Amino acid sequence: MLLEYFLFGMMTFHLSGAQNEVTEVFAEAGSQAVLPCKCGPPSARIPAIIWRKDGKSTVWRKQKSGLEYWGYAWSSKTQRVRCPHTMFESGDFSLQIDNVKEEDGGVYSCRVERGVQVIEKTVTLRITRVSVSSSAPIWGSDVSITCNVTPWPLEALVRWTLNDSPFEPQNGAASNTRTAAMEKATGRLTGNWTCVVNYKGQEGRASATLSVQGVIHPPRDDAKVYAAVGSAVTLPCVFSPGLIPSDPVWEKLKPVFLTKPAPGRLPASFSASGPLSPLPSDQSASLKEVGLGDEGRYRCSGVIKGQRLTRNMQLVVAKVHSSVQSQNTGSVTLTCQLTDTGEVTNYEWVHVIYDLKGSRSVGPILEGKTLNISTMSEGNQGEWSCRFYGKDGLLGNVTYHIQQMSGVSGEKPTSVSHNTAATVGLSFLLLVMLLILAQIYKNHQRRKGIFRYPALETIVHTVSNEREERERNAVKKPTRKTSVVG
Known about the structure:
Elements: H1 2-16, E1 20-28, E2 33-35, E3 48-53, E4 57-62, E5 68-70, E6 81-82, E7 95-97, E8 106-114, E9 117-132, E10 142-150, E11 157-162, E12 165-166, E13 179-184, E14 191-199, E15 202-210, E16 215-217, E17 223-228, E18 233-235, E19 238-239, E20 246-253, E21 263-264, E22 270-271, E23 285-287, E24 296-304, E25 307-326, E26 331-338, E27 346-354, E28 360-367, E29 370-374, E30 383-390, E31 393-401, H2 402-409, H3 414-450, H4 454-476
Parallel strand pairs: 1-9, 17-25
Antiparallel strand pairs: 2-7, 3-4, 3-8, 4-5, 6-7, 8-9, 9-10, 10-13, 11-12, 11-14, 14-15, 16-19, 18-23, 20-21, 20-24, 22-23, 24-25, 25-26, 26-29, 27-28, 27-30, 30-31
């Protein structure tokens, strides 16, 4: 008798095929979640399917007749749940939920009835989301970044990445916490944050973008701006779009104050108006002609929502120094010099030549910080440009002309000196000839003005002649002697 009951129970269990499996599914808020419910090989029997949430509320069900029903909470006009019929033939009764929300997280059950066979599966749906206290905080304001999972899995492992790189919190805080950062907003926190949750072999991810508003260009403090001596340069100071700073101020910082920089005197060619930009968020400045003494640190600032935001930058000045190696051959050494070489990785020299038509040709590229050339060679005439590079590419360049280099070094070829002396002599001779011609012309004009009146000229000569005649007669007339008779 007992054997019959045992065999009957085993047969009933086999026929019903009752099973219960638990599966973990992670989905980011706003994405599509697929809750698996695969029931083995296909069957010719028409199944009855029902999906429930938290063991009570119906999400979706289909009767053997083919009629479908949605639960009250899921029967909105925008249908978010469905169970594709095309998958039924393969025994796949998975549920798809579009645009999942945090309240969709929970435990779901799938029950499939195919004749006397009943299959049940349990799926835990966990919704992941990264929450930021402010998606665009002002520089220096408080900000927090938190990883949320609904429902939260106990003993889950959490790690954070910022811009696809592992994020290490400051001040020695643990990196495997739900909250990645609770600190002042700076450019360090700007970018794409991703929370990665590992639990029971499953991985959930969620991301959020944090954009800190303030000075966006330069993107960081102490960024370097490169300029050649004598050139013009723009010192950038651009605020986030939509931010209009009040009371903008530019300062040059004294180098002697390292911990607390003090403002110094701005260069004479400094202009706070900067480039002609229609954007009020652009408070860039400019130097019309950079001098070697203009190098150093500059600071721009502006008030946003009652808070003064600042950005420091460093102006690096470049020049070419020339030194004579040989007076006979005209050999000169050119050296590319910068006031700060901390970011420079390599140098190169480029020879640029312009012909009479203005066409530009470039010679071979020579590597190195220094260059030895001969100023006597016509092939070296033209422009020499020193380019300097950093790890991210070209930083800047400084140009120099061979004629300028000869003048600085004091070297003057003999032919040039002879030509100069001849030119000076000819110029002096021409000046003397012009003065002589001017005097001749002046005398000619004077005589021409007198001969216009010949009668007057005759009268003048006649009067002059008569006066001279009387004077001569008076001199020739003898003196009479008087005798006295006693």
